[in-house]
Design goal:
This protein has helices at residues 4-11, 30-38, 56-61, 71-84, 100-113, 137-146, 160-170, 179-183, 201-215, 225-234, 236-241, 243-251, 255-268, 293-300, 313-322, 350-353; strands at 22-27, 46-51, 89-95, 117-124, 151-154, 174-177, 343-347, 359-361. It is an alpha/beta fold and 373 residues long. Strands 7-1-2-3-4-5-6-8 form an eight-stranded mixed sheet. It is globular, with a radius of gyration of 20 Å. The two termini are 32 Å apart.
Length: 373
């Protein structure tokens, strides 16, 4: 938080299109969190406390869902932030494992401490990656019914239909998508642009590269690593089929090289997930279901594909870049977060990540044309 250069890189170029903007922090020191938040409160609309990250880095750094075990400390942080900041304080949590009454006690305490909006991921911290399991909308509904503040649901949101189903079950004020929005940023507009045309993965990849080149700091020989991470998500299934292009993407360093892979994959043609394509959504072709591929194949009525043979160093590097660069499912954890810091400035700034890891629909989702951007 004492690095002006880091703050400039993270949130130094906020423009009107970014608003409303919530900056998320992760840490276990009430004073440090408040001091960090004061650096950005004048350029955002709320400060969020990350109490949901289930990754190992959060355990080592003593934040995220692991900090929930220290309930009194969590409440102290929220109380301090809400009393000292000029913008609202929000929180994002996961459920306690096999102890829902404990979850309910905590959410009431958070509301009393000054939490202005609560996002609830309907899984516990043990439900992660290969053990992700189903999101519990019923428990989110119980939290919503118990609180006076707005409640946002998170988890299990892959399509616009999932958004509608979630709202019907939970009665929440908004729905958040995180991992699914990384692969398909056009989720909340039903993949329709302003003219009503369908927005596919090839177009999303190209538009992302245009935005990244416009806003991210890069050179003729290198780009930030988040660019490659996004490309692997947009083009996930196509790269599994065309492993030579997967290798090329793994070795790509410039926008020109990234665009050449996108263009070549589009020219070859590839079976896309088909988001919002008149019931043609193929879960087994979606990066979102990478840890639930058996269930996805069963739902789609196809056989589970055999894993591709491993290749040389470049292929291994490409596979490493494909996954693991992002933080919590349903969070805005920065890929470069340093577990050694007591407070992390983890922000959804569009200039750093371009397409925010977490996207929220706070009103009836828009399925008609005109909302692609």
């Amino acid at each position: 938080t004492n690095s002006a250069a880091y703050r400039q890189e993270s949130i130094g170029r906020v423009v009107a299109e970014d608003r409303p903007l919530i900056v998320q922090f992760a840490g276990h020191d009430p004073a440090g969190a408040a001091a960090a938040a004061r650096h950005v409160e004048h350029m955002c609309d709320a400060i969020d406390l990350n109490l949901g990250c289930p990754q190992g880095i959060a355990r080592r750094g003593r934040y995220g869902a692991f900090l929930l075990e220290e309930e009194d400390l969590v409440v102290d942080i929220v109380r301090r932030l809400s009393s000292e900041l000029s913008v609202p304080v929000t929180c994002k949590i996961r459920l306690f494992r096999d102890d829902f009454p404990r979850t309910m006690r905590l959410v009431r305490r958070l509301e009393e401490a000054g939490c202005a909006l609560l996002t609830v991921h309907g899984r516990d911290r043990h439900q992660n990656k290969q053990t992700v399991g189903e999101c519990d909308f019923e428990k989110i509904a119980a939290v919503k019914a118990a609180l006076r503040i707005p409640v946002v649901a998170n988890g299990g949101i892959a399509t616009l239909e999932d958004v509608r189903r979630c709202r019907a079950v939970t009665g929440v004020d908004g729905v958040m998508s995180s991992e699914a929005a990384l692969e398909n940023p056009a989720l909340f507009c039903g993949n329709l642009d302003s003219s009503g045309a369908h927005v596919d993965q090839n177009r999303l990849a190209r538009e992302y590269l245009d935005l990244a080149e416009q806003h991210l700091k890069s050179s003729d020989t290198s780009t930030p690593k988040c660019v490659k991470a996004h490309m692997f998500k947009f083009l996930f299934a196509g790269l599994q089929d065309h492993t030579d292009l997967r290798d090329r993407l793994g070795g790509a360093r410039t926008f020109k090289e990234f665009r050449s892979v996108v263009d070549e994959l589009a020219a070859r043609g590839w079976q896309q997930p088909g988001f919002h394509r008149d019931g043609a959504y193929l879960r087994h072709r979606s990066w979102y279901y990478r840890y639930r591929m058996a269930a996805a194949c069963a739902a789609d009525g196809v056989e589970l594909p055999q894993p591709a043979k491993k290749g040389g160093k470049r292929k291994k590097r490409a596979e490493a870049d494909d996954d693991g660069a992002e933080g919590e499912a349903g969070s805005t954890v920065a890929p470069d977060a340093d577990a050694g810091e007591s407070v992390q400035d983890v922000t959804a700034n569009a200039r750093k990540f371009i397409m925010a890891p977490a996207t929220i629909a706070l009103a009836e989702p828009r399925s008609g044309p005109g909302h692609h951007r």
